[in-house]
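User: My collaborator sent over this chain with a note saying "see what the structure looks like." That's all I know about it. Can you take a look?
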Amino acid sequence: MSRNRHLIAEKYRLSDGEFRLLELYRDLTDWDEKHTDTYKTFCVTDVVVSDFLKCDPTTVYRRRVSLLSKGLIVKKEDRCYEVVGCDKLDRDLETVDGLLGDAEKQINIVAGQSNNVPVHKEIAGVQANQSYLTKNPLVSFKGDSVSLIPCDRFLELEKSGRFGAMTADDMEFLEPSSREWELVRQGILAK
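Assistant: Without extra context I'll predict from the sequence alone. Here is the result:
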């Protein structure tokens, strides 16, 4: 029921104050079937509610009138009111769920269409004259200083001993973690 109440609040665009007042009215409703005169109704003045909600009675009045105009409460005899029953809320929710279902279908259609869109990637070719022949762990790469120390993930794997005699450099060679390592790998394979 809580989810339904929030969906109804969204559908009727209730303010926080209206939603809180509606919830209070639901809590004040007499649900005892033995009370034939007051069953499914609540009788409370705006002044009493304003004291409880710590606001002005005119604020309660405005919110109550708004709930009446939106059809969420109905005026009964003897200054009592009734919160609209669950059957009406369920019918309203079927409409809301129908709208949500249509939106979900649209999302699925869009998702399916995005799978059909070709992805264009420009891949720069590697020049044949680029190679690294130095044993120095720091080499120059187009003016920038590039470290050829294997990434931390491969160093941790090497320390774990799960890969036998394979070193972090071996792992970096098989699956380079950066563009620079890929260039080193290609230079070695080109020989």
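A starting point for your reply to your collaborator: The longest helix spans residues 86-116.
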